[in-house]
Amino acid sequence: MTPETVDSKNILPCKLAVIGAGMAGIAAAVFAANRNIPTVQVGRVSEIGFSSGCLDLFATLPHPEVRSEYSQGEHTCSGSTQAFDHPFEGIEHLVKAYPSHPYARLTRQEIETGFDEFMQFMAGAGIEYHCGTDTNPRIITPAGTLKSTWCVPSFMQEGSRAIEEKKRILIVDIKGLKGFGALQIAQNLKKILPGVQGKTITFPGRETSGDLHCEHLGRDLENPGLFDRFAQTLMPHVKDVDVVGLPAILGIYRFDAARHKLEQVIGKKVFEIPTLAPSVTGMRIKEASLSRLPQLGVTGFSSLVKQIDMDSDGDFMFNVTRGLETVTVKAKYLLIATGRFMGRGLVVEDGIIREQLMGLPVYQPRNRSQWFHRDFFHAQGHPINRAGVETDACFRPLDIRGKVFHPRLFTAGSLIAHQDWKREKSGAGVSIASAIKAVATIAEQG
Amino acid sequence: MNTHVLIIGAGTTGTGIARDLSLRGIQCVLVDKGDINAGASGANHGLLHSGARYVFKDGEAAVECRDESRLLKHLAPQCIEDTGGLFVAVEMDDDNYIADFPGMCDKYHIPCKMISTREARELEPCLAPDLKAAFAVEDAVVDPFMLSLDNAADAQLHGTTIMRNTAVTGFRKENGQITSATVLNTRTGETQEIEALQYVNATGAWADTVSAMAGVNIPMIYSKGSLLVTQDRINQQVINRLRRASDADILVPGGTVSIIGTTSVEIDSLDEIRPTPEEVDSIIKEGAVMVPELEKTRYIRAYAGVRPLVSTQNGQGRSITRNYTLKDHLKDGLENFISITGGKLTTYRLMAEKASDIIARRLKNYEPCLTAERELPASKKGEWTEPAKSARLWMNKKDPKGTLICECEMVSEQMVNHIVDSLKSEGARPTLREVGNRSRIGKGPCQGTFCSFRLASYLYGTEELVDTEGLEQVREFVNERWKGFMPLVRDKELMRVELQESFLCGLFGLEKEIHDT
Ligand SMILES: Cc1cc2nc3c(=O)[nH]c(=O)nc-3n(C[C@H](O)[C@H](O)[C@H](O)COP(=O)(O)OP(=O)(O)OC[C@H]3O[C@@H](n4cnc5c(N)ncnc54)[C@H](O)[C@@H]3O)c2cc1C
Ligand SMILES: Cc1cc2nc3c(=O)[nH]c(=O)nc-3n(C[C@H](O)[C@H](O)[C@H](O)COP(=O)(O)OP(=O)(O)OC[C@H]3O[C@@H](n4cnc5c(N)ncnc54)[C@H](O)[C@@H]3O)c2cc1C
Fold first, then answer.
1. Does B417 touch chain A (CB under 8 A)?
2. Residues B114-155: tens digit of each pLDDT
3. B499, A50: Cβ pair inside 8 Å?
4. Residue nearest (by alpha carbon) to ligand 1 atom 5
5. Which pLDDT band, with edges at 50, 70 and 90, does B319 fall under?
6. CATH architecture of the domain formed by B80-141+221-310
7. Do A87 and A195 belong to one domain?
8. Does the CB atom of residue A103 touch ligand 1 within 6 A?
9. Residue A129 CB contacts under 8 Å (≥ 6 apart), including other chains
10. Which ligand is in closest contact with the Cα of A286?
11. Which chain A residue shows the shortest CA-CA distance from B495?
12. How many angstroms separate the Cα of A110 from the Cα of each of A386, A435, B294?
C-alpha cells in the first residue's frame, strides 16, 4: 500500500518509516508491504553491494570463553570455533552461549516465515533462491574455501550441487581479472573435492588488457558476437568435466538468460562464484530488490536522515531530499536499520561508540583497548563485533535503564547488539529475522 | 661452514660492515634471525639527521651526523630524498631554548638559518598558526630498506654470503677465542656451526642477548619508540619541534606519506614490540600541537622499534648514551669478538668503518676503508620498497598488459615477478611475507585486504604456491598488518576493518581451520 501523497506543506504521512536500505531495511519494507502497512524507506548504499548474494542463517559458533588476552604474549591462533551443518540445531547452542543474541528472541517458525517471505519477494524481483532443507548448502568462495550458507541464488546453485555430489568441476579464470584465481581455488579444494581443476582463459577482445572487471565483462557478453567467441574459448576445456564455475561475469541484470545460453552452447551446467569488491552478485541483489520495492507500494528515498523529531501528534518527523525537493516524512512507527560502522549506524565520538541517529545507548567494551584481539582471526571474534543496540523481545531499543526507549520505535539488522554475523555467518538471517518480528509486532499493534 | 668474519645482525650496521669489510677483500658471512632490516633498521623514523637535533645534548653525535649525512647525500643519493628540514616552536615552548638554538648550531658548524614564521607557514601550510620561531636546517629523509638492501647487494657482489632466517643460538669457545657459532635455520629447524676467525655482534637491541651467549654482558636499557604513518603526505620537509626532546616531536615525510613520532617507553623484554592504543592517542595529541591536522588525518599504520641504550659508567654514576657503543671484548677475555650497538641510522657508515677497522687490523689486512669515497651502487633489490616509487614507475611505463596487484601502492605483476626472481636467486621461497617485505604491497590504505589476496591468486597462478599454503600466508600477512593497524583503529578506520573482516571471515571463513567446513 502506498503512503498518502505529499500534501501542500510537503509532508508525507505514513504508518511506518524504515531507515536503512541494507538487508534489514529492505526486508523490513518487504514485510511491511506484505502486511499492507503504508511504508516509506530511506537509505543509501549498504553492505549488500559487497555481499556474496547468499543468504546466511547460521553456521559457526565462535567460542564465547572470555579471556583477558591483553596480558598474554603473541600468538596467532587461539580459542576454537564449532561448525554446524544444521543451522537450527546450531542456533540452540548459539543462544545458550550468548543468551542475549537476537536469535534468542525468535522461534524457528518466525525465522522460517521471514526467509519464506523474503525469498518470495526476491523471486518476484527476478532472483530465485534455493533454500537448504535442514542442512546448510555450501558454495565455493573465491579464496578456494567452502562457505556454508542457507539460501543459494540460482546462479550459484549448480556449484552447491556439484560440491555435495562431488562432481568434476572446472573453475575458469580470466587473464587480467585479478583477485580470482582458478588455480588458487583448485589447489585449496583439491583435498576435499578431488575432481576440481583450474584453467585460465583469455577473454575475447580483451586478450592484452591489463585490468579487467567483472562488470565490464558482463557488458561485453551482452554482445552476441563476443558471447559466442567466449563460449568457443571455453569449449575445448570442458570435455572431461561435469560443471563449469566462472567468476561472476554474467552481468547485473540478465545473468540467468546468459547462463542458460552458455549451458546450451557448451553442453555443461554452469555456475558463478562471487568475486571481491565490487561484487557483481551483491549488486544483483541490491538492484533487483530496490527496483522491486516501489512496485509493492513502498516509497523510497535515497537520502540520509540527519535528525528525528516528534510532532504534536506524537509521530516521528524527519526530512529527506529528492533532487532539490525536501520532503518531511511523518510516521507513526519508526524502524531503524542503519547498520554498523560501514552503514554509519554506529559511530565513535571521543572513544565511545554511539548510535548515530537517535543517540540510543550502545552496549560496548569498556574502552578502545578492549575492542579487538591482537590476533585478527581470533576464534572468539572481536569484542567490538557484539557491540550494538540492546532491545526487548520484539526488537524495540532499550534506554539506559533497560526500559523500552519508545513504544513505537523498532530496530533490525546488524545494529543490534550481541550478534557477530561475520563469525556466525548469520548476516542475512539476523537482518531478516529481526525485521519480521519487528514488523509483525507493528502490524499487530495497528 | 668456514669464513673469515661472521657478522651477526643484518640491519644497517651489519650490512654496512659486510660491505666495508668485503670492499677490503675480506670474506664475510652475514646472518640474521629474520630478514634484512628485521630490527630497528626496519622500524625507525627514516630521518637523515643534519645534527641540529643533538646540539644541546650530544655535540659529538651532532658533528658525526653533520658529516655523515653530507657524505650519504653524495654517495647514496638513490636512498635519500633531500627535503631539507625545519625546527619550529609554538607559543607554549621555552623561549630560552629557542634563543640558544642558533648559537649551539653555530658552535658545531651545523647550518641553521632563522626564517620568519610566515615563511615557514608558506613552506609548510600544515604548521600550527601559533608558531613563534622557525629555523631551516639540512635534514633529509632516508629509505632504510633501500640503504640496507644496497649495502647487502654490494657486499654480496664482493663475496659476502648472506643467510636470512638464520639465528645465532650459541658459541663454542676455547682458550679465549670463539671457535664457532651455532646457527639455527628458523624455517627448517636445522642447525649448523659457522667457524670464523672474527665474530662481529651487530644485533642492535639484541646485542646483550647475543653477547651473553659468549658469556659477556652489555648492560643496556630498551627504549621502545612508536611511530604513526599517515595516509597522505602532509609535509614537504622534515619538521622538528624546537624543544627538549620529547614525544611526537618529529614529522618526517617520505614518498606519499608522513610519519609522526616517536614515543620513548622503557620495556623489559624484546618479545613484545608493538605500539599500544595509548601511545597512539598521545602521539596524535602531542603532534597536533605542532601540526593540527594530525588530529583529523587518516593513519594507515603504526609500528614500533627499540633503541638499545647502553649504560656507561662515569664519575657521577650511570649515564645513558644515545651514541653508538663499540665494544672490543678483549677486555672480557675474548680475542676475536666485538659488539657494536646503539647509534643511529645516519651514522651507520661511520659505525661500520670503526668496527671494520678493528676487524681488518686483527686479520692483518691494511687496506683502507673505501665507503667514505666510493658510491653505494643502486641495486635492483630495493627498487620497489620506496613509498610511491612503484607508483611513479607504473605511471611512466604504460604497459597495457601490466596488471596491478596492489592498487593502493600500484605494484604490478611485473614488479612481483622481479621480486620473486630475486628471492629465488637468494634461495628463498617467494611467500607473501617475503614479497611484502620487498615491496609496498599491503602498505597502502586497504592494509592488505585486497592485495594480499590478489597476490596469493597470482602466485598460485604462477605455481609458486600449492595446497592451502597461500591462505595460511594470507592469514599471516593480514595479522602482520593488523599488528600495525589495530592500535590506530579509532573511528573511520572501523569501516575498513569491518569490510576486511566481512571478506576474510564472513565470506572466506579464514578464522577457521581451512576446510573445517
Ligand atoms: C563483504 C561482505 C560480504 C557479505 N556477505 C554476506 C553473505 O554472503 N551472506 C549474508 O547473509 N550476508 C552477507 N553480508 C552481510 C549482510 O550484507 C549484512 O549483514 C547486512 O547487510 C547487514 O545489514 P543491515 O541492513 O543491518 O546494515 P547495512 O547493510 O550496513 O545497511 C545500513 C543502511 O542504513 C543506511 N543509513 C545509515 N544511517 C542512515 C541515516 N542517517 N539516514 C538514512 N540512512 C541511513 C545506510 O545508508 C544503509 O542503507 C556481507 C557483508 C559484507 C560487507
Ligand atoms: C623508534 C626509532 C626511531 C629511530 N629514528 C631514527 C632516525 O630517524 N634517524 C636515525 O638516524 N636513526 C634512527 N633510529 C636509530 C636507528 O634505527 C638504529 O640506530 C639503527 O637502525 C640500528 O641498526 P642496527 O643494524 O645496529 O640494529 P638493528 O636494525 O636492530 O639490527 C639488528 C639485527 O640483528 C638481528 N638479530 C638479533 N638477534 C640475532 C641473533 N641471535 N642471530 C641473528 N640475528 C640476530 C635482528 O633480527 C636485527 O635484524 C631510530 C630508532 C628507533 C628505535
1. no
2. 999 999 999 999 999 999 999 999 999 999 988 999 999 999
3. yes
4. A51
5. very low
6. 2-Layer Sandwich (3.30)
7. no
8. no
9. A55, A119, A122, A123, A151, A152, A153, A154
10. 1
11. A342
12. 23, 10, 50
